[in-house]
Automatic annotation (TrEMBL):
GO terms for molecular function: helicase activity. Pfam families: PDDEXK_1. Residues 2-236 form the PD-(D/E)XK endonuclease-like domain. It comes from Planktothricoides sp. SpSt-374. This is PD-(D/E)XK nuclease family protein. Keywords: ATP-binding, DNA damage, DNA repair, Helicase, Hydrolase, Nucleotide-binding. GO terms for biological process: DNA repair. The keyword Ligase does not apply.
Length: 263
């Protein structure tokens, strides 16, 4: 079974959400705002990949001024990435896919850009939102931990020679970065945490398949985390966490209260 950083994140934060999304395939559609942001981010990633392949992007970027200014800001901040003549003996690849087997699972990662030479292996990831205090905790997120772990497990680079840098391209016209270093202690810690999570996951999965036992939910004491979750009704967590929200849903589901819309 393949596991990505997103799946590990769900297994750690709410195993029931993992069950809904990956076992029951109940992924809810994004809101219009989320869709707009996802679509913009996807186009940005494709343009960066196209550029890395040596294909022209100027005309495509020019039709979207925000895209153009984000790419310009990134180029200004890190010209090395855009250099038409990278140093020889350097390996570069956009959308670089890697995987490693770990305790019966295949852990997978897709790096937006990998630059590797005899001194270092640098993983780059493009984030199409601003760097904020909240995003500074990215170093502890599973994306960072898994991406670094897989690089160390699948190459000859010692952990100390591997790093991961996030570039935030919508930070008020200026690209900003956050670099996460790696070392042997962090690698061992990730190995321990992966072992713990995968062992639990195996138990939940076996029980789910054998008897239909549901994966654990976040504890009721932390039910405020459910307020933003699209599965809150299914999990019967709205009433447990916020009575105001229940009123909102009750109102919404009362057809008589919905205003007529002229077409
Ligand atoms: S509503 Fe709460 S318990 Fe249910 S999937 Fe979402 S976060 Fe998990």
């Amino acid at each position: 079974m393949r596991l990505s950083q997103a799946q590990l994140k769900h297994l750690e934060t709410c195993p029931r959400k993992f069950q809904h999304i990956y076992l029951e395939r109940l992924n809810p559609p994004p809101t219009p705002e989320q869709w707009q942001h996802l679509s913009w981010g996807s186009r940005f990633h494709k343009l960066m990949q196209q550029r890395e392949l040596g294909l022209p992007i100027a005309s495509l970027a020019a039709v979207d001024p925000q895209m153009q200014s984000s790419i310009n800001a990134l180029e200004e901040a890190v010209p090395e990435i855009f250099s038409p003549h990278p140093p020889k003996e350097t390996f570069r690849q956009a959308e670089h896919w890697r995987s490693c087997h770990f305790q019966g699972y295949m852990l997978t990662a897709v790096y937006d850009l990998l630059i590797a030479d005899s001194n270092s292996a640098r993983i780059f990831d493009w984030k199409t939102y601003p760097l904020s205090q909240k995003t500074r905790s990215l170093a502890r997120e599973w994306q960072t931990r898994l991406y670094l772990f897989i690089m160390a497990e699948t190459s000859d680079y010692p952990p100390e020679m591997i790093s991961m840098t996030y570039w935030f391209v919508q930070s008020g016209g200026k690209a900003q970065s956050l670099t996460c270093s790696y070392d042997s202690a962090k690698h061992e810690e990730t190995q321990r945490d992966l072992t713990r999570i995968l062992k639990r996951f195996q138990g939940w999965l076996q029980a789910y398949e054998a008897t239909g036992e549901l994966f654990p939910q976040v504890p009721l004491s932390a039910a405020n985390k459910c307020l933003e979750c699209p599965f809150a009704l299914r999990c019967q967590r709205l009433s447990a966490s916020n009575s105001d929200t229940i009123q909102g849903w009750d109102t919404l589901t009362n057809l008589a209260d919905i205003q007529e819309v002229c077409l």
